[in-house]
Amino acid sequence: MKTRWILRLAVTAWVIWAGEGLLRAQQTPDTILYNGKIVTVDNHEVNEQLGTVTQALAITGDTIVAVGDNSRIRAMAGPSTKSIDLRGRTVVPGFSGTHDHPMDWDTINPFIVKKVVSDDMHIERFLNVAPDEALQQFPQVLEEAVRTARPGQWIRISLLYGKEYRWGSQIMAFFGRQINKQMLDLAAPDNPVEIRGGFIGLVLNQRAIELTKAHYGDQWDKFVWNPYGDIENTGTGATAYRWLEQDVLYPPEVLQEIYRLGLSWMAGYGVTLNASGLYTPGAVAAYRALDQGGKMAIRVPWSWQWRPRPDFWSDPYLPEVMATMVGSGSDHLWLNGLWPSDNASSCSTLPGTSPEVKQREVCHFGSDFRDGENAVALYNMVKAGGRLAGIHTEADKDIDLILDIIEKASKDAGMTLDQIRAKRHVYDHMGMSPRPDQIPRIKNLGMMTGGYNMFLWEGAGAQVLKDYGEQAAQWVQPRKSLLNAGVMNSVEIDRPIGYTDLTYFTVLYAGITRKDQDGRIIAPSEAVSREAMLKSATIWGGYYSKREDKLGSIEPGKWADLVVLDRDYLTIPVDDILNIRVLMTMVGGEVVHLVPSLAREIGMPPAGAQVELGGLAAQW
């Protein structure tokens, strides 16, 4: 009897399993891509192996359901399946930008702002010419803007850095000198004025300062440190435009539309995930509204920070609550980590090549910086069980301090090593870190790093060499050392490439070659292969965002986030990588970017902000 009962149970189980399998087989895919080179990046290990390369894939809903050869995948098609012949083109997983500031860069993208903002709202003007021309044209542009504006209406003028992104230092040298607060006060006594740099940096007049402070009311005086700092005297600042633009200048519905188009614009580079701190209440509210309205073209894992109030982390309640919220959100917007401090600035153990170099350093996690408020905030967050992610860092001494705090806070919380590693703390930038002896500590703690190759591209590596010498140059974006040690590192953009001719492949190229714009190569021993760089850009971005089970590779069960390229990234000459074009981007199986030529070929309408607003992709 017992044997017969077991047999019946086994038969029943088999019937249920077979029925479920038949049901799955009967669910025809919505979309099939075939006859391509599908680079799956399904090897998750820290090495240069990409894993399976095949021909086709099938998508149902937002999910990849099968990957394989043409005959097997095409046999799955039904009457309603959209089948796309790739004609040999390369497909890779969607790219990650793991430390970016889309809300900062969208407002200096003239394609986007001109679409959304008219002179009836407020006055927006852009100059994207060589520095001498910009200085010559600026007075006329300012005069025209003041003449056009109604009394009390905002005026905002952006001085950009050129299509090749070369003029930053020259343009910023004007701020506080040829373009200053006194000039703006005299030229526009009846209007608030912001002059915005093409990266960070601004000049405000007195009316703009007063209106920003009035918006925050009595909260402004509760900030532990004044976000406008010296701006109230000089009118000049770095990233203080956030409080103005995100909370004061743009109405919520306007800010949402700028951000919506900005996310779509990023999809045109093949970016399907863009991690960032959101910084202000206005930015958080705007992204939340887009997410709730189903209007986010790509995914945004965000880090929580309220920079003027690191004292919040001394409250025993806040760290506990925020730690439990990490990972919460939707498929397009989720809390990825916590950033309980001001910036971590450039602070090195090296002596520098001059006294002036050391005088510029600030150790933001030192006990003598604002009475150690950043160190206390980080300690309290980690001890409560939070995850560090999104933080700016540069040089090696700051990393010593951060690692010390993570180790002490974790120990004081009674965490095991496995529990610490499960947090997967991450720090960004790698401007001049980690040192070789820090890498084993990072590995032991289960941490990973970001890495912004634009630091190399725009010549900052050469500046490190000048300021700190050859040893420091080896610490700039040391991807090869991290790879050899088994430490994952991701790809940051962290630059406003929207108004330039740069692409995501500029970022990858700089990591592969370690060349800057002028062809100088910095510490070539730290260069990595194009395969390793692709893993940083895809699967390791999935690990950074703690969604490696759903994104970062082309595998059944994962979100259908992928990119179609016009040439083979893996085989073309390395210098040709700069010329790769993104023809199509999918996020969750939905086409969010499609250039006109491929659109005609596959019988679909072109899509995406770069196409719709007249970017370069509109010509492809």
Question: Can you describe this structure in just a few lines?
Answer:
The protein is an alpha/beta fold. It is 38% helix and 14% strand.
Please supply descriptive tags for the structure shown above.
single chain; 620 residues; alpha/beta; 27 helices
How would you explain this protein's 3D organization?
By secondary structure, the protein is an alpha/beta fold. It has 27 helices and 22 strands. Helix 5 (131-148) links the parallel strand 9 and strand 10 (155-159). The chain starts with a helix and ends in an 8-residue tail after the last helix.
Q: Helix/strand-derived class?
A: alpha/beta
Query: What is the total tally of β strands?
Result: 22
Low-confidence stretches: 9-26
Number of helices: 27
Name the beta content range: 5-15%
Distance between the termini: 72 Å
- Helicity, in percent? 25-40%
> The biggest beta sheet, please?
6 strands, mixed
Mean of residue pLDDT values = 94
Please give the order of strands in the largest beta sheet.
Answer: 3-2-7-20-21-22
